[in-house]
Amino acid sequence: MEFRIDRSSGLPAYLQLVRQVREALRMGWLSPGDRLPTVRDVVARSGVNANTVLKAYRELELSGLVEARQGSGTFVKSGLGSTDPEVMAALRTRLAEWVREAREAGLDIEDIDALVRSVLTEGEGVAVG
Amino acid sequence: MTTVVEPVGDTAIAVRARALGKRYRSKWALRECTFDLPEGRVAALVGANGAGKTTLMTVLSGLLDADEGSAGAVGRVAFVSQEKPVYRHFSAAEMLRLGARLNVVWDEARARRWLARFEIPLDKACGKLSGGQQAQVAFALAIGSRPDVLMLDEPLANLDPLARREVTAELLSEVAETGMTVLLSTHVVAELAGVADYLLLLAHGRLLAGGDLDELLARHVGYTGPRSDAPPVPGTVVAARHDDNQSSFLVELPAGQPRPVVAGQWTERSLTLEDYVLAQLETTRKGAGA
Questions:
Q1: Which of B172, B263, B269 sits opposite A47 (nearest CB)?
Q2: Would A128 be classed as within a structural domain?
Q3: Angle at alpha carbon of residue B126, lines to B80 and B153, rounded to 5°
Q4: From start to end of chain A, where are the E strands?
Q5: With an 8 Å Cβ cutoff, is B165 touching chain A?
């Protein structure tokens, strides 16, 4: 797979790489058992710092998506989107209901987006103000 | 002047400066410059014109003596100055032969690989090569000396965009292969994301900020919201802007704490490297802070 860095993004370069691997998994370009390109390959092909690639791979390893095998490379361990399709369908139905309710209350797409985002980020830090 | 640097803790230091100062006549070009650059990093040295970048590199590489403080680097240092010097009457091949004679350690294959990669003719006099090609000969010489620390003053200046990208990729490949430490100065801050992982920011001869790039950026956040005197989170205000009904702040968050969540009327924005550097440089122009 080919990595690219969006230099105008506020997202740190290593997290951009992490996101691209997760995206490749979600899209099915990468499957469990596949080998990620070696650090040197990524450096040579994408002009990304080796420390940045290592940091991204370490992050992916910590989240259990890939595993480093001594001497042979980094391999995809598990796929994303392995959630039960029935559970997914049920979640979607409830979300659609919630969105309808929000629209009836007068919220537009941006309001809904902001609301969802604030709930999503609640778990990631300490609320203030 | 150059002293041997001992490893500190579990991260080895490649370049160290302690209260480093350099004066040209009565004017200080560099003052109270203190930092540790860990081994294996690719550090960007950034600052406005006349900030002291070239002076710092020249002192660190041992070509100029400091007037104050001390500097040291681990192992062998190679320095390519902004002029990318080559002998005009020498061909690239003769430059390499010179490199082999002048350096204690010499890797001919590595130097030749660099020249081949950029399709530099070996038998043509350097004076007849283009500016970009001369730069490649200077780089090949530096790479061939297998330095532990490679210092490059404006390596990307005068290169076209494609060559800039290729030189960067090739340089980073060398770093990945050899584990050397790189310190490069540049004005092209926007192209540093994913390339540099360490930042040294100079202004008026003083070190304004320095450290791991990701950590620096993670600790600085932009907030925009209703007109107010203070940002919605605790921290140090780096920059603030107000108009009639809106305020925006650039805040340095306290170290070692999770990023606070803002709610209500405030929005937050992660900074790009360029945002961060420009905001920092602006603070010095207004005479605030350092």
A1: B172
A2: no
A3: 15
A4: 66-69, 73-76, 126-127
A5: yes
Domain count, chain B: 2
Asked if residue B235 lies in contact with residue B185, where contact means CB atoms within 8 angstroms, the answer is no
Chain A contact present for B240, CB below 8 A: no
β-strands B27-38, A73-76 pairing: unpaired
Any CB–CB contact under 8 A between A46 and chain B?
yes
Residue B277: name the closest of B210, B206, B183 by CA. B210
CB contacts, 8 Å: A128 with chain B: 232-234, 260-262
| In a domain? residue A8 | no
What is residue A83's predicted lDDT score, i.e. its pLDDT?
A: 67
Q: What domain count does chain A have?
A: 2
pLDDT score recorded for residue B285: 76
Q: Is A85 helix (H, G, I), strand (E, B) or coil?
A: helix
Q: Is B118 on the interface with A (CB under 8 A)?
A: no
pLDDT at A89: 86
d(CA B102, CA B97): 9
Task: Taking residues A35-59, report their average pLDDT.
Answer: 93
Q: What is the CATH number of the domain that holds B34?
A: 3.40.50.300
Q: What is the pLDDT of residues B40-77, one digit of tens each?
A: 999 999 998 889 999 999 999 999 999 999 999 999 99
Out of B168, B177, B266, name the one closest to residue A47 (CB): B168
The answer to ipTM > 0.90 is no
Taking the Cβ of residue A72 and every Cβ of chain B, the question of whether any pair is shorter than 8 Å is answered with: no
Query: Which of B151, B183, B211 is the C-terminal boundary of a domain?
Result: B211
Encode pLDDT of B197-253 as tens digits: 999 999 999 999 999 999 999 899 999 999 999 999 999 999 999 999 999 999 999
